[in-house]
Amino acid sequence: MLRNMTLAQVADVVNGELLQPEFADVLISSVSTDTRSLIDGALYIPLSGDNFNGHHFIAQAENEGAIAALTSEDVATSLPLIRVDNTLLALGRIAGWQRDQFSGLVIAVTGSAGKTSVKQLTASILTQTFNTWMTQGNLNNHIGAPLTLLALKPEHEAAMIELGASGLGEIAYTAQFVKPLVGIITNAVPAHIEGFGSLQGIVETKGELLDFIQPNGTAVLNADDANLAQWQQRAAHLQQLAFGFSELADVRATNIRCSLEGSEFDVLCDGQTVAIKLPLLGEHNVRNALAVIAATHAAGLSWDHIVKGLQASVTVKGRLQPCRGAAGQLILNDAYNANPTAFKAAIDVLKGTENSWVVMGDMGELGSDEIAAHTDVGTYAKTSGIEHFVATGPLSRNAATAFGESAHWFEDKPALIRFLQQHTQKQDVLLIKGSRYTGMDQVVAALQNGNEEI
Predict the structure, then answer these.
(1) Nearest to 360 by CA among 304, 416, 322, 282
(2) b/e for 239-259, b at 16 or more Cβ within 10 A?
(3) What pLDDT shows up at residue 1?
(4) Is 367 marked as binding a ligand?
(5) 122 is known to lie in a ligand binding site
(6) What are the residue ranges in the chain where pLDDT is below 70?
(7) Nearest-angstrom CA–CA distance, 21 and 27
(8) C-beta separation of 319 from 336 below 8 A
(9) Is residue 92 included in any domain, yes or no?
(10) What is the DSSP string of 38-101?
(11) Does the annotation list 117 as a binding residue?
(12) What are its GO biological-process terms (predicted)?
């Protein structure tokens, strides 16, 4: 909820012109870019894209209770209007103003993989001490991050902000408004590489977060990532903590035990050894937890709250989420998204498991490496001892071919579902994963419901 602003203040913050000066003292208490979520007292900000123009809905916004609007076009309305050059940038500026009014703790995370899990784990710890707000769903882009800041309420004492990017400069854009005390970079891997041009483009974009951490703040960096030195140099003006399994890590895990029930490990930090139980699957989530431990430790939280917060964490829907199929199969629902590094980490969870199945959908946005990346995942599954490999989608056919003769590839999801319904039983463990656009969550739902059709 936006802290009350007059329209005169809004105009000043966004470098705009209030076209009806007689409304200068009118107060707004919220901001919305969507007429479907407007509440009384709202400022409507129309955004425009290739296939939509929010200016066309200003009249509807008035009907839904908006009391003013921004505009970069000539529009006919009785609403008070503030004219700006760019409504998207104006949204960010208002969010930045809102952030400046917030005196609580702000932690931010970016990276190619693990952002959402780190966000959830951090928020779980912060809530042990603070009234905490965090990024909801996937509102982590150039629109979602400002909206997240604008949803901060006066009663909030801490915020955990997730920052995603689809291209160069996007983290810099959002981080300038977030200004965290602690910033986490989980990793940089070839995920969504098309928008960045190269892996180096991803490394530089994730590193943009470091430029906007508060001067007395801390950069939390992955000691196991090949790009650590680049980020350390970029963050030379900040305090730093490295996390990971490497001897170079300031926050390091030892004695790691992973199972299909969760993970246990000892964390070494500041000369202390602390036992941790984590109800999340996979060694990669141990590393995510180390990032969170480093960040919350840097922010001054107690070990008691850190341990309790990790133990209280819950699996994010669609990210190695255990559930049961209608035939009793154990399904690891990892259908939210996929990239080669994350796919291999998920396969690692099944290592040593009997009756293991990998159910693969295509991985998107890999550019010219897409065929090699899918082939590599199929090979990795085979060498990891996976017993059964089934796939759908044109790119995943390369993975099935690499896995070998015992793999099965299907032209569409209904055919794959029918095969799984007919050939999997109670003793089987199925990892189901693919990029979001492939809709592999539909396969999960069909197996849970016992349906042979989507």
Answers:
(1) 416
(2) ebbbbbbeeebbbbbeeeebe
(3) 61
(4) no
(5) no
(6) 1, 452-454
(7) 13
(8) yes
(9) no
(10) --TTEEE---B-SS-BGGGGHHHHHHTTEEEEEESS----SS-EEE-S-HHHHHHHHHHHHHHH
(11) yes
(12) cell division; cell wall organization; peptidoglycan biosynthetic process; regulation of cell shape
Say whether both 223 and 352 belong to one domain. no
What's the confidence (pLDDT) of residue 365? 86
Are residues 71 and 166 located together in one domain of the fold?
no
The reported pLDDT for the residue numbered 193 is: 72
Residue 393 main-chain phi, psi, to 5 deg: 110, 145
Residue with tokens 């559930």: 323
Q: Which of 311, 340, 375 is the last residue of a domain?
A: 311
Q: Which helix (H) or strand (E) holds 408?
A: strand 408-410
User: Is the distance from CB of 4 to CB of 98 less than 8 angstroms?
Assistant: no
Domain that holds residue 79: 5-86
CA-based torsion, 450, 363, 284, 319: positive or negative: negative
Of 405, 413, 376, the closest CA to residue 389 belongs to: 405
Q: Could you tell me the two tokens for 449?
A: 């419901």
Which pLDDT does position 56 carry in this prediction? 94
pLDDT at position 103 is 95
One-letter amino acid of 417: I
Q: Annotate 94-121 with DSSP letters as a single string.
A: HHHHHHHH--SEEEEEE-SSSHHHHHHH
Is residue 393 a known part of a binding site? no
> Is 162 in the same domain as 293?
yes
Backbone angles phi, psi at 267, to 5 degrees: -105, 135
Query: Residue 111, annotated ligand binder?
Result: yes
Predicted TM-score (pTM) of the model is 0.90
Q: Are 66 and 41 in contact (CB under 8 A)?
A: no
Identify the pLDDT of residue 416.
97
Total count of domains within the chain = 3
29 is in an annotated binding site: no
Same domain? For 77 and 111 the reply is no
| Helix, strand, or coil (residue 374) | helix
List of residues 6+ apart from 200 with CB closer than 8 A: none
Separation in Å, CA 275 to CA 265, 278, 290, 327: 6, 10, 12, 37
Ligand-binding site membership of 263 (annotated): no
